[in-house]
Write a structure and sequence with these properties.
Helices cover about 35% and strands about 25% of the residues. With about 375 residues, it is of the alpha/beta class.
């Protein structure tokens, strides 16, 4: 009996694991080939870097003597992944050319910028999924035959707008990803690496002056207040500024400006480098402490500490003419904390939601 992989010996019924888009693509391609070879394909065994996985096939059909099609559903697991329940389809043609040719169809993105794992002009099907597709097909292809397989994602173009793909220059759809074949619930390392791809693109394009922002709001503000800026110079950090600064240092980036709304950015002043709200907060403590350092009396500090939002704290500081100096002090602390991770030239710009700059001790001429 064929032994299948049970990832890390954790029961699949616990719903902590799923398959990657790469595994889904490989399974659909194998099922399509099996149909052409006259075999039923309700479930196929797929070789992954970690072992074999049994993958259910939604449907497979023979269209002509040389053309078939199969579809896999990327079933949901305990993870807020936009590709849950994603339909992955493989069209496969058998021919007289040896080997396996892989193409991207509708809903699979096209790479248009350098720095990624896939060259410019190629479909965004990463190396491991390509290897999996080839390995799982080559063991079945009849002698003196070859195949061409086209992977498509019917809802890929729509889903891509919820990812970093447009920012990375991957147009027209999502990427076919995966390094192990298994998607793990809340895989923080994979999530962080998705942000790091922005750095790879920026460096490949020769940019050495980068603007780090927490997310979409920060990016919009950066475009609003900074002129002559290429979109590829703006790097979204997500909740991982510490990781992103370290990765920038590894890539020999020399100049970084941290720019963002006070609610996110000031956490760095306390050495909080995972800014997810559920992980750590400290905003009122930071603002209260720096207000005190700049002359706020006890009643002002107490009022700040009892305020509900960062914006409310700003109003209190502004009324006491303490806003600028407090945020200058916070900006200095952010730089000090971040220099442990990034030793290049570092600037800090803290803003309100409308783009108003709160600290005056920044380097950029705005």
């Amino acid at each position: 009996m064929e032994k299948f992989l049970n990832p890390l010996d954790i029961p699949i019924k616990e719903n902590k694991y799923g398959i990657t888009t790469g595994t889904g693509a490989a399974a659909a391609a194998k099922a399509a080939l099996l149909v052409l070879l006259g075999e039923e394909a309700q479930k196929v065994a797929i070789k992954t870097p970690l072992g074999k996985l049994p993958i259910e096939i939604k449907e497979s059909r023979k269209l002509t003597e040389t053309h078939s099609q199969a579809t896999v559903i990327k079933k949901p697991y305990n993870d807020p992944d936009v590709t849950r329940n994603l339909e992955i389809t493989a069209n496969l043609w058998i021919n007289h050319k040896s080997g396996v040719i892989i193409k991207g169809g509708k809903g699979v993105g096209l790479v248009t910028k350098p720095g990624l794992q896939v060259p410019v002009g190629q479909p965004a099907i990463n190396p491991t999924p390509q290897k999996m597709i080839k390995e799982n097909l080559l063991e079945l292809i009849p002698e003196n035959k070859g195949v061409c397989v086209e992977i498509s994602i019917p809802k890929g173009e729509e889903l891509a707008q919820k990812t970093l793909n447009p920012k990375l220059g991957i147009i027209g759809g999502i990427s076919i990803l995966g390094t192990t074949g298994i998607a793990r619930s809340m895989n923080i390392e994979s999530y962080k690496k998705s942000f790091k791809c922005q750095l790879d693109v920026a460096r490949a394009e020769g940019y050495d002056e980068l603007i780090f922002v927490p997310g979409n709001i920060g990016e919009k503000i950066a475009h609003k207040i900074l002129k002559n800026l290429s979109p590829d110079q703006i790097i979204q950090m997500g909740n991982f500024p510490g990781y992103m600064l370290q990765e920038a240092a590894k890539l020999d980036v020399e100049n970084i400006t941290l720019l963002g709304h006070a609610g996110k950015l000031i956490k760095l002043a306390a050495g909080i480098f995972n800014t997810e709200h559920q992980i750590a907060d400290g905003r009122r403590e930071i603002i209260a402490a720096h207000a005190a350092l700049n002359g706020a009396d006890e009643s002002v500090i107490e009022t700040i500490f009892k305020a509900n939002t960062t914006e409310d704290m700003m109003v209190i500081l502004e009324e006491k003419a303490l806003l600028e100096e407090t945020f200058n002090s916070i900006a200095r602390s952010i730089k000090e904390r971040c220099q442990d991770r990034f030793t290049g030239n570092l600037d800090v710009i803290i803003v309100k939601m409308d783009g108003t700059i709160l600290n005056s001790n920044h380097q950029l001429d705005i």
